[in-house]
Amino acid sequence: MSANKVTRRLRIKKSIRNKISGTAERPRLSVFRSNKAIYAQIIDDTTGKTLAAASSAKLDDAKSNVETSNKVGKAIAELALAKGISQVVFDRSGYLYHGKVKSLAEGAREAGLKF
Known about the structure:
The protein is an alpha+beta fold. It contains 3 helices and 4 strands. It has a 4-stranded mixed sheet. A hairpin with a 4-residue loop joins strand 1 and strand 2. The protein is globular, with a radius of gyration of 14 Å. Keywords: Ribonucleoprotein, Ribosomal protein, RNA-binding, rRNA-binding. Belongs to the universal ribosomal protein uL18 family. This is one of the proteins that bind and probably mediate the attachment of the 5S RNA into the large ribosomal subunit, where it forms part of the central protuberance.
C-alpha cells in the first residue's frame, strides 16, 4: 500500500469525524478493515468508551470477505441490541461504501440496527 493511499484515507477519515460524533443515545459504529479481518466497534464519544465490538477474527470463519463482513455486521447488531442500543451513526473510516464495508452495514441493518 502506498503512502499516498494511506494519507488519502486518513484525510477522508478526519473529514468524516469532524462531521459525526457518537453520543450515549446514538453511538458511533466504526469500521476498520485490514487485509486479514474486518472489525466493528460501537463507541460513545462523549465518554470515550467502546460499548460493543465484533470482528471476523473472533468468528469461526476467519476469512475476510463479503459474506464474513455480513456476519460481523449481524454480530455487532446483536451485541448492541442486547445492551439496549437500537440507533447508531455509521462511520466508514475513510473507506469507500462498497464491498466489505457495505456488507457489514447491510448485515447490521438486517439484524435490527437503525442508521
